[in-house]
Amino acid sequence: NPNVVAEAQLPVIESGVARDGIAAQVVDPPAPADCVYTLWYDAKRRWDIRPVLGYVELRVRHRGETIGGATWVARPSLSPFKWRSTETRIGPVLDELFAQFPRGAG
Fold this sequence. Notes:
Layout: H1 9-19, E1 37-48, E2 50-62, E3 65-73, H2 86-98
Antiparallel strand pairs: 1-2, 2-3
């Protein structure tokens, strides 16, 4: 998604997809007709002394219809967790999202 302003999203998403055993490729919209399943995402930064990841939304679509999704929202806090890597924050969200789908579906 070229409109995403948060850094490092695509590599983390690609890594999460691969970690869950799903073969994938990055395509520009609109997806080719042979892409039965697609993953749409959005991410936004927020300011907290410096820009930090504040929001990530993921949607799995089958032939254009949303069949699963997950959202991660950073809550304002004093926790050092907000400074962790993008992988640390949204990796578990990707794992939870893809756990909904049986392997070999697609």
